[in-house]
Amino acid sequence: MVKVPNRVKKLIFVMIGIGFLLILSYRTYISIYIKPYTFIDLKEKIVDYDFIENGKVIITKWDYENKLDYYMTKNNGGVLRSYPIVGKTKIVKEYHKLKDINDMKHNIPDGKEYWGITIYNIKNKKLTPKDYDLFKMTREYNKSYVPDRIDNVIYISNGKELLDIYLKSPKDHYKKDIIKSIDLQSGKVIDQGDTTEKEVVNDSTNYISFLPIHEQLTMADRRISLDKTKKFPEPDAVMFDKYPNTKDLFSENHSMIGILVDRPSVDTNIPILKLLVNQKTNLFKNVTIPAEYSIDGQEHEIHSYDEFKQFYNKIGNIQGE
Q1: Membrane spanning segments where (predicted)?
Q2: Taking the domains of the chain in order of start, what are their residue ranges?
C-alpha cells in the first residue's frame, strides 16, 4: 500500500476546503443577490464608440459592467434588457434589480434592490456618463411618490431634453399614473413637458413595419439596434466601406446606432438605413405602403425613394433638421 506524504494530504484537504468555500460563496451569492429578485436588468456601459456623418450619428458598443454578475444571473433565472434611449445630445440606459416592478409600493430600496439610469451627455464628440438613482430622484420630487416606470422616448420641451417618468401615490392606492419628466441635464424630476414633440418622435419610424430591413435590426425613433445575432449579416454594407472603424463597432449583439437629431424623420433616418445595405440594394423595390400609412388612404406599390416620399403619409408633417 502506497503511503501518501503528509504534505500531499494537507494539500488535498486545502483544495477540498477551497472547493467547499467556493461552492458556499456561490450559493450565498445566488441566494442574496439573485433569487429574491424577479426583474433584473443589469447595468451596461458603452465600451467603445465613434461618430460618423459629420457627428450627426454615433455608433456604440455596449457590455455589462460586471461580467461575473451577468453570467451568474443569466444561469440562475435570466436577465432582462432594456434598449438604450437616444436623444439629440443624450443617451439613457436603465438598469435595475427589483423584487416586483408590477406592484411597487416603496421608494426606498428593499434589501439589495437598485433602480437607476445612466445618462450619457454628448458634447464635442465625447461622451460623459453620470448615474442617477430613480428611487432617490422620486423621493426628492415627492417623498410619498413611488417610481413605476420610465418612458422610451426622449423629446424636447422648452429647450430641455426630457424623458417621462411614471409615478404612483399611496393616496389612490398606487393605481393612477402620475406622469412627470426627468430633466436629462440636471437629473431632476420636474413637471411633465409639452408632449407635442414626443408624438412627433413616436410616429417617426412607422415605415419600419413594411420596409425590407434585416430582421436582426430593430429601429425606433433615433435608435437602430443589432439583435439576435453576433455578426451583422451585411458584410459589404456601405457604412463599413465608408467608415471602416464601424465594422467592429456594429458587429455584435447589442451594438447600436444613434441618430442625433432633435426631430427624427424620414429625411434623417432613411439615409442611415441605406448605409446598412449593399450599394446596389434598393430598399424600396416592390415595397407596398399600406393604406393606413399612405397619403391618400390607398395602398401603393413603390419602387423608389422618390415614390416613397410621394405616397408615405408622414413625410408632410415630420420634417428633419
Answers
A1: 12-34
A2: 1-35, 82-201, 203-311
